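Before the break, one more example. Copy the sequence into your notebook; we will annotate it together after we see the structure.
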Amino acid sequence: MKDTLRFENVTKRFGDFTAVDDVSLDIDHGKIFSLLGPSGCGKTTLLRLAAGFEKPDQGKVWLGDLDITRVPPEKRPVNTVFQNYALFPHLSVRDNIGFGLKIARHSKTAIAHEVDRMLEMVDLAAHADKMPANLSGGQKQRVGIARALANRPRVLLLDEPLAALDLKLRQRLLVELDAIHNEVGITFLYVTHDQGEAMSISDTIAVMNHGRIEQTGRPAEIYETPRTSFVAAFIGDTNFLEGRVTTSLGERFSQAEIPGLGVVMIENDKPVRSGDRIHLSIRPEKLRVSRGTPGAGEASNAMPGKIEEVIYFGSHTRYWVRCEEYRICAEQQHRTFQLDEPAPIRGDAVWISWHANDGFLLDQYREEDEALLTFPED
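Here is what the structure looks like once it is written out:
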């Protein structure tokens, strides 16, 4: 496909460390594609391979039908937006945006026209003659984005572009960045360690870990149907339960024995047979906490427990409930006025319940991935 950015069996090593390990990935034209993962997972190295700042030890990088693996950075139809803005302090906003056009020997008239267009797009026309030192962090980053787009690249590479900004400014700039993407219509390759950023702006996310792609998909697919314990724990929070299938109840549901909890109903997200070992992920917001015994229903699960911790967030409350050997995290949204009836508190006996299709069976589980969970310890 025209302008598809493709990594073909790409490997990059730094000494004995393999930063990118045999990665193959297609990034469709015109999409916002995020590389998401913890520090050291290889996401920035993959972006630098696309930019030409690094060369792969194996594999190729393609842009459409053009092999750009050995093309120098300045000759690639891609531009990069950096975390630290990388603005020229001695140049005005206008001159920073027009710098690349000047180097490319465009006419003064063409440069002025394109710079004015960029200033309007990033809402900085009133600041055109200011120096970078007189701009806020958000304004500096918008200058960096405008400068990168002025040369009309086929791909825009964004390397943790909002990491240096505070939360509210990041949220605002995410909306602005999405609007800019809609206007220019080119491919954005967005690198971040922030799950919220990736989930809110991306058409597609690739979750990286130890130089490899753990899972690729739409944000909802990544969140609702994680394939591995790493993805489940890194994208939001979850509860891990493990046990063995005891009884098949047809194509859709089975029963499983969870040591320390008893028998629970599971949905057959993948083919399972009696005796198979299973690893179940259940998001906190899928669980319900109640003082009374929940009503029985087809494929429903319920078990008694005792509240050990409560954290009130305003819009929702998180409960940590001890159910035999498990410490379960549940999240209750506050959809109604909360002061009419006392909420459960620490020490209360409660019931935890969920429907079988609110859990998801993982393809792969690793104990070390539980370290990624943000739940408080006992």
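The chain is about 20% helix and 35% strand. Residues 167-184 form the longest helix (18 residues). Try to locate both features in your own notes.
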